[in-house]
Specification:
The complex is a heterodimer of chains A (about 170) and B (about 220). By secondary structure, chain A is mainly alpha-helical. Helices cover about 75% and strands about 0% of the residues of chain A. Chain A is elongated, with a radius of gyration of 18 Å. Helix content of chain B is about 50%, strand content about 25%. In chain B, strands 1-2-3-4-7-6-5 form a 7-stranded antiparallel β-sheet, with helices on both faces. In chain B, helix 2 packs across helix 3. In chain B, about 25% of the residues are buried. Classes of the chains: A mainly alpha (about 170), B alpha+beta (about 220).
């Protein structure tokens, strides 16, 4: 039947990108259970609008759906996507630096994780898509529906904030 | 310092790593920020929900199919009803015509030969469970009445004349009103109509125009 072929084509196109979808949802929601639910919902949404898929990169197309699903969920939950990053708090983190390099390195990576999670949503999504998914600026601009220039500036500012955050944490 | 160096530093726990994270956090993300992999079972859940989603439109397909099937049955039933009603009417018309021809062929045209409606009408008392409308019609003299039998029930036959032609007007009670109709068979004209819970058949070899006049005259009176 035609619809069975369509489902098979859909599964071939997007199921391989399940990890990318989950990773993005997990970083955007900062919660494993929510990410799982939202990924599932995203796949349903993607399936319903599969006729809009023009045969471009399946991963970027799926990530756009995941991103929109997560953002509308966050908005409904009352999250402010543009919540300002509390640089004061992060720069005065009261973490005592450890002399042991192992611990320091672990602290550095732990802080890296915390600082990335603490980034405002639009910086976080740009950095995750760029550094973890290694998408191009153009692909990110299509997913986030902003100009390429905005993507570049978000990534640059995101990196700068990460640096500030880490400096505060590791000082 | 590049990311490759940073990775080596991480593996060897080089004390300078923390420094590097500070100077190049972005490249550290690519190598050391956590890449969350989908939990086991999520793929299965997704495939299941996709299958459910797939079967949802098919429910609609079934509903549509069932609805069109019902519509088809209903149409067919109505057509059958309509046809059987038409068939019944044709059968009745056959009987009406036969009764008319029979009444003229033999000697049994009139049970009560009278031009007086007050003689004819009471004559049916006790013979029928209804009282037929016997009327004096100008230009169509009443000749009398006769008992008939149609479709399993007794009927009144009122006989009127017009020049040398004979008109049989058959009437009996009928619960379902039917549309008026006319037809011509073997040179005889038949008018059929209903009203006031009675059904009427007028049949004669009289020309159609005059039979029509008779029918409208009877209906008006």
């Amino acid at each position: 039947m035609d619809s069975d072929r369509e489902q098979a084509r859909f599964e071939q196109t997007v199921i391989p990108h399940l990890n990318a979808a989950y990773n993005l949802a997990r970083w955007l929601t900062r919660n494993g259970d929510d990410a799982e639910d939202l990924v599932q919902e995203s796949y349903l949404r993607a399936f319903r609008s599969f006729d809009t898929f023009q045969g471009q990169d399946g991963r970027a197309w799926l990530l756009a759906v995941v991103r929109n699903t997560c953002l509308s969920w966050l908005r409904k939950k009352g999250h402010q996507p543009a919540a300002e990053f509390d640089e004061q708090m992060h720069s005065t983190a009261d973490q005592s630096p450890n002399a042991e390099s192992v611990l320091l390195n672990q602290a550095a990576l732990g802080s890296l994780h915390d600082c990335l999670e603490a980034l405002p949503l639009e910086f976080r999504e740009a950095i995750v898509l760029r550094e973890l998914e290694e998408l191009s600026y153009k692909e990110i601009s299509e997913i986030a529906r902003v100009p390429v220039g905005t993507v570049m500036s978000r990534i640059a500012r995101g990196r700068k904030r990460l640096q500030q955050c880490l400096a505060g944490a590791l000082r | 310092m590049n990311c490759e160096t940073a990775r080596n530093m991480m593996e060897t726990n080089d004390p300078a790593l923390a420094e590097h994270v500070l100077t190049c956090p972005s490249c550290m993300i690519g190598t050391h920020a956590r890449y969350y992999e989908a939990p086991p079972g999520l793929e299965r859940k997704i495939r299941q929900s996709l299958r459910r989603e797939q079967s949802a439109p098919s429910t609609w397909r079934w509903l549509t199919l069932a609805a069109s099937l019902l519509l088809g049955i209903s149409v067919a039933w109505n057509v059958a009803q309509f046809r059987s009603r038409a068939d019944r009417e044709q059968l009745l018309a056959d009987n009406v015509l036969s009764a008319h021809v029979r009444s003229l062929a033999g000697t049994h045209l009139l049970d009560v030969p009278s031009s007086d409606q007050h003689t004819v009408k009471p004559w049916f008392n006790g013979k029928l469970d209804f009282s037929p409308g016997v009327k004096d019609l100008e230009g169509f003299p009443l000749l009398g009445g006769r008992l008939e039998y149609f479709g399993g029930r007794p009927a009144a036959a009122l006989i009127y004349g017009r020049h040398n032609h004979t008109i049989n007007l058959f009437t009996w009670p009928s619960a379902t009103p039917t549309a008026a109709s006319t037809q011509t068979r073997n040179g005889y004209h038949l008018h059929h109509w209903s009203g006031n819970g009675m059904t009427f058949w007028a049949v004669s070899d009289l020309n159609e125009t005059e039979l029509g006049q008779f029918v409208s005259l009877y209906g008006r009176n």
